[in-house]
Amino acid sequence: MSNQHAPELLRVENLCQYFKSTKAVDDISFNIKKGEVFGLVGESGCGKTTTGRSIIRLYDITSGSIYFKGKRIAAGSKSYKDAISGARREMKSAMTQRKEELKAFIKAKQDEIRKARYDHENADKLHADLLIREVEERYKPLLEKASGEELARLQKKYEYDRGVAKNQRFTTQIQMIFQDPIASLNPRMTVYETIAEGLVIRGEKDKAVIDEKVFRVLEMVGLVREHASRYPHEFSGGQRQRIGVARAVVMEPELIIADEPVSALDVSIQAQVINLMNDLRHSLGLTILFIAHDLSVVKYFSDRIGVMYYGKLVELADSDELFKNPLHPYTQSLLSAIPLPDPLYEKDRVRIKYNPLISHDYSVNQPTFQEVYPGHFVYCNDEELARFRAGEKV
Q1: pLDDT digits 0-9 by tens, 156-208
Q2: Nearest alpha carbon to residue 171 among 144, 201, 142
Q3: Which of 42, 284, 315, 321 would be a feasible disulfide site paired with 328, CB 3.0-4.6 Å?
Q4: Higher pLDDT residue, 1 or 9?
């Protein structure tokens, strides 16, 4: 299991991702600790992939905040704007004292919007500026002491390192492995060009360095140097996904978002790719957000698991705890759908059907994401929470 005392690497707070009237992700919060695998499961269309794409900033988030290594890398302002609109409506009929309170509230929310926009737009620049200052501080005493050929050599190396630092982006420490190993690779680029592209964009110009990194990572994922000159159509599905893994790993990220990386592969190849990712996780110290709908794979690979349903995070717990003691009716339904290679078991297996209109009564008391037991969270109202803590099932 994951180390309970490991530092927090990623924190998602009240993330909302709306596409016009469609609430693809609706007010979810969770964190991922350094070195752990966090599984995100749910049926197709529940918002898993959208969550991953929002974290890596392929989308500008609608509302909420995303923190990486303690720094806010993405922020949305809709919740602040909605609060301001509500306060302005209330002001029309409010008494004088209440109006002053609402004015202060509106000003505070406007300040929050400005801060959110600043962080969202400047996270990468601030990171690059920090790295540039670190390079300058490292080289300054060396350049002051050097002279002649040594000074020229150091000056050249300083300019090179400063250029690399200038091209750094905070989000390059987060990489993504995409679901479709065919569509995610450019058919007109060789394997070498595909893997090296991120290094080139980051500012790496030394071909010897690029060669060393590309060939090393190819061997790391179970391919050979000769594969570097080939094109994606010359590989099998499993090999293509290994190329996708290599493209992510070569950037030396701290967090990898694996978006259903094995769902398009044969079962035997799935096991190979999962074992590969498990090996890389331990050898490189990676942290992984593992998005999938195959619960058997997620249980094997993940330390903690979050369950999504229609854009909401409905349950979150340690992997063993979730499978042993599922509390939310949707989680129970998902687990009941897992087939086993046992004909006698399958003959008697009872599928649990989930209908939110029947399972819950939220007409009076609305649900929130609450901690039932230490580390075990469920989306429920106060009545359901009391029943869960009393050992009852909803």
Answers
A1: 999 988 988 888 888 889 999 998 888 889 999 999 999 999 999 888 888 99
A2: 201
A3: 315
A4: 9
Write the CA distances from 377 to 6, 28, 165, 276, 388, integer angstroms. 19, 12, 40, 31, 11
Which DSSP state fits 182? T
Residue 350 DSSP one-character state: P
Return the DSSP state at 233.
Answer: G
Q: How far does Cα 259 stand from its chain's mean position?
A: 9
Quick check: helix, strand or coil at residue 302?
coil
Residue 369: other Cβ atoms inside 10 A: 18
pLDDT digits (tens, 9 = 90+) for 112-147: 999 999 999 999 999 999 999 999 999 999 999 888
Which residues have C-beta within 8 Å of that of residue 5, sequence separation ≥ 6? none
Whole-number Å distance between alpha carbons of 170 and 51: 18
User: Among 19, 27, 29, which residue's Cα sits nearest to residue 67?
Assistant: 29
Tell me how far CA of residue 147 lies from CA of 133, 151, 255, in angstroms. 23, 5, 42
Is the pTM above the cut of 0.85? yes
Length of the chain equals 394
CA dihedral 118, 124, 125, 130 (to 10 degrees): 110
**Which residues, 6+ apart, have CB-to-CB distance to 33 below 8 Å?**
2, 3, 6, 7, 8, 9, 287
pLDDT at 345 over 90: no
> Cβ distance 260 to 244 under 8 Å?
no
